[in-house]
């Protein structure tokens, strides 16, 4: 009986061409988003890999000079895009791609793509994830808004119940029809997405990306299932198809379009973060005090870089500065990142009411384009900067400080530059990423259960 009901609903989708037109538009947008994302990713990764190599070559081939001057020139490291950023770019357009590793200072990433974008970006970037998160529910609504309301209007609902069709079978049959209709459209699209995402990757990265894709597809399947049962619940409660459509459009606008921005603003208000200027000023003030305390403890002087400190200890002083500054920077960045994480958790838990928020967090996390991925790269870049600083300070202590007042006559050559290895960043594996995103998946699953119970309670018991 469930199969017969599903078959009848599918034939109805085909006859009135809703599946063709609505599904065709979605597939077209998915194809455009995938093509644009793939082309951009190829270009960006090629440019960043070339820039990374050229920057390191410049570092190694620089002329003989004082190591501290070289440290101020520093080097640049470039963030590679995760393979699944082609599916969900996440926060990538809003954070930088390049980090400057220089003396004395942990830097933020620079060159944010959103800075060059138009105001239209406020409505979202066209990506595979955006199409599925925003337009996927709309597709479900278009297909299923009259599932029960039309039966009631046409008088067929009474006939179905008179021949012994139970409300539960009627619900499952219509849900199965919507699921099959979506599968007919999205499963072939998923195969194409997988092919594009995996092409050109090395074997180990291919396996990791494939596992991510499978988990990602499962999350989107749960998300669309939530809207299937919500659509059937509303259709079961309303008296006409027109009222059902209006009610569902209100749910879509509120839950998918308005809620994410509202919850984001609420999270920012509950867990505020300082502006860049406030953050830098606060860290600079603590750094100044920390440096002064470190110099007093190490050299017995309170004025940095004054005449009281002989030149034969300047290399050691640089090392003292760096070690003291590491702790301060770690604390300030940990507090900032902690506030961002609290904002993310608030949005994630809001997914119980607005599932798109839980899905967005889950999708970015599995795709490797969320804040955790950004933080992982920033930490790796900072470790590279500290390695450079420690090697240079060590070299100054052993080769420049021993020259006494001739400290600044010392010049290092490529022997020192080559001691700093090329920056080699590896993306976190699926095993490392999945535990951090289990909660989002659990919230989506709980929302699915709630929507199913709501649909079950809304199925008409009588015409």
Helix content: over 70%
- State the low-pLDDT regions, or none: 111-123
Number of strands: 2
Number of domains: 1
Structural class: mainly alpha
Rounded mean pLDDT is 88
Most strands sheet: 2 strands, antiparallel
Shape: elongated
Beta-strand share of residues? under 5%
Radius of gyration: 29 Å
The CA-CA distance between the termini, in Å, is 19 Å
Cross-sheet strand order for the largest sheet: 1-2
Summarize the helix and strand pattern as letters.
Answer: HHHEEHHHHHHHHHHHH
Number of helices: 15
Structural notes for this entry:
With 463 residues, the chain is an all-alpha fold. The protein has one domain. The chain is built from 15 helices and 2 strands. Helix 11 runs antiparallel to helix 13 (371-399) and helix 12 runs antiparallel to helix 15 (430-458). The protein is elongated and about 105 Å long.
What topology emerges from the helices and strands here?
Layout: H1 2-15, H2 18-60, H3 67-73, E1 75-78, E2 98-101, H4 128-144, H5 149-154, H6 156-162, H7 167-198, H8 203-237, H9 241-270, H10 276-299, H11 314-349, H12 355-367, H13 371-399, H14 414-417, H15 430-458
Antiparallel strand pairs: 1-2
Helix pairs in contact: 1-7, 2-4, 2-7, 4-8, 4-9, 7-8, 8-9, 8-12, 8-15, 9-11, 10-11, 11-12, 11-13, 12-15
């Amino acid at each position: 009986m469930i199969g017969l009901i599903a078959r009848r609903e599918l034939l109805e989708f085909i006859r009135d061409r809703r599946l063709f037109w609505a599904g065709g538009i979605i597939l077209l947008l998915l194809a455009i988003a995938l093509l644009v994302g793939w082309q951009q990713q190829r270009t960006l990764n090629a440019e960043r890999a070339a820039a990374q190599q050229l920057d390191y070559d410049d570092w190694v081939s620089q002329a003989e000079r004082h190591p501290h001057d070289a440290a101020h020139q520093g080097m640049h490291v470039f963030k590679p895009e995760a393979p699944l950023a082609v599916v969900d770019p996440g926060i990538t357009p809003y954070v930088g791609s390049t980090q400057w590793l220089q003396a004395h200072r942990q830097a933020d990433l620079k060159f944010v793509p959103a800075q060059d974008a138009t105001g239209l970006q406020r409505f979202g970037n066209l990506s595979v994830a955006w199409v599925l998160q925003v337009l996927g529910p709309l597709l479900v609504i278009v297909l299923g808004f009259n599932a029960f309301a039309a039966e009631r209007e046409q008088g067929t609902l009474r006939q179905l119940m008179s021949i012994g069709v139970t409300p539960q079978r009627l619900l499952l049959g219509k849900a199965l029809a919507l699921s099959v209709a979506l599968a007919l459209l999205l499963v072939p699209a998923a195969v194409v997405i997988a092919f594009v995402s995996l092409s050109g990757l090395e074997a180990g990265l291919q396996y990791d990306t494939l596992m991510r894709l499978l988990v990602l597809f499962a999350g989107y399947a749960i998300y669309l299932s939530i809207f299937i049962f919500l659509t059937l619940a509303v259709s079961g409660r309303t008296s006409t198809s027109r009222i059902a459509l209006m009610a569902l459009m209100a749910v879509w606008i509120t839950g998918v379009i308005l809620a994410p921005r509202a919850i984001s603003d609420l999270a920012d208000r509950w867990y505020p973060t300082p502006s860049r200027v406030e953050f830098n000023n606060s860290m600079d003030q603590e750094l100044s005090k920390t440096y002064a305390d470190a110099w007093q403890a190490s050299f017995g002087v309170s004025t940095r870089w004054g005449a009281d400190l002989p030149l034969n200890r300047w290399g050691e002083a640089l090392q003292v500065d760096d070690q003291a500054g590491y702790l301060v920077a770690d604390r300030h960045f940990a507090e900032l990142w902690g506030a961002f994480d609290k904002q993310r958790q608030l949005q994630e838990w809001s997914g119980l009411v607005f599932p798109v928020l839980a899905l967005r967090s889950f999708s970015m996390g599995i795709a490797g384009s969320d804040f955790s991925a950004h933080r992982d790269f920033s930490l790796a870049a900072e470790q590279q900067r500290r390695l450079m600083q420690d090697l240079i300070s060590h070299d100054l202590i052993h080769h420049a400080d021993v020259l006494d007042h001739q400290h600044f006559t010392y010049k290092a050559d490529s022997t020192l530059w080559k001691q700093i290895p090329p920056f080699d960043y590896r993306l976190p594996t699926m095993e490392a990423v999945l535990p951090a995103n289990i909660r989002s998946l659990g919230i989506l699953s709980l929302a699915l259960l709630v929507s199913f119970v709501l649909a079950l309670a809304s199925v008409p018991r009588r015409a």
